[in-house]
Amino acid sequence: QVQLVESGGGLVQAGGSLRLSCAASGRTFSSYAMNWFRQAPGKEREFVAAISWSGSSTDYADSVKGRFTISRDNAKNTLYLQMNSLKPEDTAVYYCNAGKFGSGAYWGQGTQVTVSS
After folding, report:
1. Cα 94–Cα 5–Cα 58 angle in degrees, nearest 5
2. In whole angstroms, how large is the CA radius of gyration of the chain?
């Protein structure tokens, strides 16, 4: 089992950048594929990005390709999401997720990202 805590959310103007972090507890972090999801008000939770346990494979939702970068540091048990060229439609609660590539069983509590126009 793994526990996940997100941080780094906040308020930013359109065109700005934020870096989200997800700190994982336990010694099994490096064995999990990791994902980021987001949920905007009134909408379903949606996939944002995924990274394999080694970091060698990544995948992105079409809506964030070229703007967001997922990465991980297994020595620090930490997952990252670098978000550039942010748009108002990126406003959502962002969730860290662990398990399988694309979707896992473990979730963090989420961090709010608000992009103003």
Report:
1. 55
2. 13
| Structure confidence by residue, pLDDT tens digits, 58-88 | 999 999 999 999 999 999 999 999 999 999 9
Task: Note the helical H segments in the chain.
Answer: none
Q: How far is CA 48 from CA 1, 22, 25, 28, 32, in A?
A: 23, 14, 22, 23, 17
Parallel, antiparallel, or unpaired for β 10-13 and 111-116?
Answer: parallel
Which residues of the chain form beta strands (DSSP E)? 4-7, 10-13, 18-24, 33-39, 46-51, 58-60, 68-73, 78-83, 92-100, 103-107, 111-116
The pLDDT score that the predictor gives to residue 37 is 98
Instruction: Work out the average pLDDT over 38-66.
Output: 97
Q: Which residues contact 104 (CB under 8 A, 6 or more apart)?
A: 32, 33, 34, 35, 97, 98
